[in-house]
């Protein structure tokens, strides 16, 4: 009988907690939206996200989002709920009853021999019983720790004085869902009005009873915290007075403590703790621990910094590679050109670089692959975060398909890059071979496809988009070779590496915006994970951001800065760019702006 009652109490407790979730979530979400606007205004995170730079004030603003995400996390809300802590007491009684009734009583009545199993399974059942007892005791101890913590927090509030009426007050979120169910009209399609009235009355009485049960459960749960807190509070006050007397004698230590307290309250983070109505404030120590976790995540990210990528970014110059990798002197194979994403030219340039003679089997190729692999992981994250509504989806898919072949098999669309390197005598022949294969793919596609949808490059298959990128970049490099630039394999490899570094650096100027965007996750269930990823990314890319902040960036709107074609259009229209373009400025600007407009229309 007793186990049944305890199990029923546990079920009612968890059911009562589950009923409060919708209203609790709604209340916390509304408070989050209010404090979100406050945080954005106070720290100026909108403008900081636009200029792409990270400073100490911005990190402090991010900590506000960390605190809001942690304190509004559904698991944390349930853990500090009075119903959840009261379930620990039920668990304690269940454990004590089991140990007393099935262990101590049998031991004193029948001796140890009675505890031995007479089952056909032998002593195995005894070991199973022991394992279950251990698990039950450990689970009970963990739940009791949570209850003791809640009692300790309650003691801190009772030290300042309490009102019994306020302590036992039933907040709206406890019964709001049940009241709505009770007062709303039933959706049953019953023609008989008398029958519908009786059903509504029955529902009203049943839910009124459940509301009473819910109120009773909340009051009992609050008493289970309040009574122990009232008993312990006098002892806490006594020890506080003793501690205060000791500290008063240590003037220096006291001044240090005040200094630390002033430093900790400088950010005034307590305003960003999201609590339910009438919920007790979290202790200062808890807030410090939560904020300290943010610093630990940043340090964890610093330990994961991509050293190979940072080595490649040392070659970064002044973003000129964004303009140089594709020349508008190269004739188009189609009436329209597909817009670029950041990752596609990176994969194409890497494929060309590792296929050059004397490079394909060299450690330089292996090192470049490692560098680009680390860079692409961040580039893809930036594209995934900033490109909404499946923007440039086919272009990004083309990158994925091409990179899998290059990274795993050193093949580009089934073409063995090692074989091409051995077959061709010099770098020029390699470029011509890759360009011819890419051109063949595009021509075959145009000859075999008559669908009007393919007139739009955004609808092209992935392999055709990748082939178009390979064709244009190879032809651009061949044109520059004809103009007397370096043609040796080592020289061309270094030039391509600089282009890759420039494109990566330009893409990484969006990192600050990505970090801020991740702090602003809308879904309450995903908010904690998203903010955690933002702080981890901040630590992981700290050295990269420092490197970029030493450079001068083009004056681009933060929305346009997410697109490589907008960068190209900006550089080609600017007269301040230090490098001379390999194409006509008017033609280049016209074509780049066309691609940028195509992206803008697609985004809308």
TrEMBL record:
**Keyword Secreted appears in the UniProt entry:** no
Q: Where are the transmembrane segments?
A: 77-105, 126-149, 206-239
Keywords for the protein's UniProt record, in alphabetical order: Membrane, Signal, Transmembrane, Transmembrane helix
Give the domain of life.
Eukaryota
Residues spanning the signal sequence: 1-17
Name by which UniProt lists this protein = ABC transmembrane type-1 domain-containing protein
Q: Which organism is it from?
A: Sesamum radiatum (Black benniseed)
């Amino acid at each position: 009988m007793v186990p049944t009652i305890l199990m029923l109490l546990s079920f009612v407790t968890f059911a009562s907690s589950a009923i409060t979730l919708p209203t609790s979530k709604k209340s916390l979400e509304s408070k989050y939206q209010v404090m979100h606007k406050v945080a954005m205004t106070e720290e100026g995170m909108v403008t900081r996200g636009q200029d792409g730079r990270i400073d100490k004030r911005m990190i402090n603003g991010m900590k506000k989002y960390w605190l809001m995400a942690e304190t509004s996390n559904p698991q944390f809300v349930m853990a500090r709920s009075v119903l959840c802590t009261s379930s620990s007491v039920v668990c304690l009684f269940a454990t004590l009853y089991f140990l007393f009734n099935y262990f101590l009583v049998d031991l004193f009545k029948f001796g140890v021999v009675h505890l031995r199993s007479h089952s056909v399974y032998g002593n195995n059942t005894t070991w199973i019983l022991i394992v279950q007892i251990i698990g039950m005791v450990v689970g009970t101890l963990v739940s009791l720790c949570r209850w003791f913590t809640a009692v300790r927090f309650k003691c801190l509030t009772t030290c300042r004085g309490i009102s019994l009426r306020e302590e036992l007050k039933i907040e709206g979120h406890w019964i709001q869902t049940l009241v709505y169910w009770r007062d709303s009209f039933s959706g049953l399609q019953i023609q008989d009005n008398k029958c519908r009235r009786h059903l509504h009355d029955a529902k009203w009485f049943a839910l009124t009873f459940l509301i009473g049960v819910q109120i009773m459960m909340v009051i009992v749960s609050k008493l289970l915290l309040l009574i122990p807190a009232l008993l312990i509070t006098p002892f806490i006050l006594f020890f506080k007075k003793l501690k205060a007397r000791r500290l008063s004698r240590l003037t220096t230590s006291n001044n240090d403590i005040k200094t630390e307290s002033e430093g900790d309250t400088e950010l005034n983070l307590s305003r960003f703790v999201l609590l339910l109505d009438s919920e007790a404030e979290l202790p200062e120590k808890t807030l410090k621990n939560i904020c300290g976790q943010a610093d630990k995540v940043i340090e964890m990210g610093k330990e994961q910094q991509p050293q190979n990528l940072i080595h490649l970014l040392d070659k970064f110059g002044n973003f000129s590679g964004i303009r140089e990798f594709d020349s508008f002197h190269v004739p188009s194979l189609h009436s329209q050109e597909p817009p670029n994403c950041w990752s596609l030219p990176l994969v194409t340039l890497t494929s060309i670089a590792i296929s050059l003679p004397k490079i394909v089997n060299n450690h330089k190729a292996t090192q470049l692959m490692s560098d680009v692999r680390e860079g692409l992981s961040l580039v893809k994250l930036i594209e995934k975060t900033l490109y909404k509504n499946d923007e440039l989806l086919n272009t990004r898919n083309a990158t994925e398909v091409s990179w899998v072949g290059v990274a795993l098999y050193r093949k580009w669309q089934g073409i063995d890059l090692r074989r091409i390197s051995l077959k061709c005598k010099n770098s020029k022949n390699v470029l011509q071979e890759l360009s011819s294969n890419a051109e063949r793919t595009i021509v075959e596609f145009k000859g075999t496809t008559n669908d009007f949808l393919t007139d739009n490059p955004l609808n092209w298959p992935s392999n055709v988009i990748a082939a178009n990128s390979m064709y244009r970049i190879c032809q651009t490099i061949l044109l520059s070779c004809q103009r007397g630039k370096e043609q040796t394999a080592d020289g061309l490899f270094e030039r391509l590496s600089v282009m890759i570094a420039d494109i990566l650096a330009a893409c990484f100027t969006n990192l600050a915006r990505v970090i801020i965007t991740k702090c602003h996750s809308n879904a309450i269930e995903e908010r904690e994970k998203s903010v955690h990823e933002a702080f981890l990314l901040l630590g992981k890319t700290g050295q990269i951001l420092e490197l970029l902040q030493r450079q001068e960036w083009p004056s681009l709107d933060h929305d346009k800065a997410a697109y490589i074609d907008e960068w190209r259009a900006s550089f080609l229209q600017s007269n301040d760019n230090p490098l001379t373009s390999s194409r006509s400025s008017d033609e280049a600007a016209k074509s780049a702006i066309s691609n940028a407009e195509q992206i803008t229309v697609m985004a809308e």
